[in-house]
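Objective 1b. Sequence-to-structure analysis of D-3-phosphoglycerate dehydrogenase.
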Amino acid sequence: MDAGATAFAAVGAETEVVKAESPEELVAAADGANALLVDAGTQVTERVLSELDSLKVVGRSGIGVDNVDVDAARERGVTVVNVPDYCLDEVSSHALGMLLSCARRLPALDRSVREGEWDWSVGGPIRRVRGSTVGLVGFGKIARSLAAKLRGFDVDVLVYDPHVSEGDLAGFSVTRTGFDRLLTESDFVSVHAPLTDETHGMFDADAFGTMPDHAIFVNTARGPIVDEGALCDALASDGLAGAGLDVRESEPPTDDRVFEFDNVVCSPHAAFYSEESRRELSRSVSEDVCRVLRGEKPRNPVETGDGWG
C-alpha cells in the first residue's frame, strides 16, 4: 500500500479513481465526495465547486493551482491544499539540463555521430556558458533552486517577478529587473511562472523579437505561457539559437512545427519526475487532505491563486 492509500485508510476514507475530462464529468463522478485529489489536467471550476456541495477539501497533486478556482473554493468554505515543495530539484535540474543540452548542441552532435559522422563542427556555433547571463522569469521555489545550481557556472542571473520583494532575492546572487531588460540582456531565458491571465501568451512575437539572436529559451513551467507560433517563427528566422520545451500549448502536441527544428529539445512534461518525487507527492497531499477531513489545520493551504511563488 502506498503512502497515499495508507493515509486515507487511517481516516476510514473510501477512495475511487475516476477519469473526468470535463467539469460535467467531474461533477457526475464526484457526487457526494468530501474530498477531491486532482492533477494539473482536472479543472475544478466554480461550477464544479458549487454543485459538489459535500466537498470539504481539494488536494492539488503538485505546486500549481491554475486549474483550481481557489477564490470560489474559499467562498464556499472548501479548503485547497497543494505540495509547494514538490519536485523542486527535479524541475530545476531538468531546466538546467535543457539549457546545457541546447547550449552545447548535444542533440545535433548525437544525431551526427549516430549517422556515422565524426565532425565536431556540426553543432556550431557554440558559445561559452561561463560569463553569460541567465534570465529567470518567475522566482518561486523552483527558480530559486535553479539559481542555486547556477552558482557553479559563473553566470550572471537576472530575475523578473513582479510578485517578489528585494528581500525574497537576498542570498541568491541575482539581480531583479524588468521584463524587457531581462529579454534584451539574457543569453538564456528560463520560464518558471505559473499560468495566469497575466502570463498567458507573455512570450509572443514581441518578446522573442526582443531577445538576442543567439539566445536560448527554456520552458518547464506551463505551455500556454508561450505563443508557439511566435516561437517557431523566431526559430525559423534565426531569431533564436534554440529552445528546450518540457511543456506545450497542447499536450500532447499535434501538427507540430516545433519538430521541424534540430535546435529544439523536447520532453513530454516529464520535468517533475523522479521515483522519490512521486512518493513524496502522494504522501504529502494525501496526509494534508486527511488533516482537513479530521478537522485539523492543513500544512499547505492555498489562500489565493494569484502570485508567481
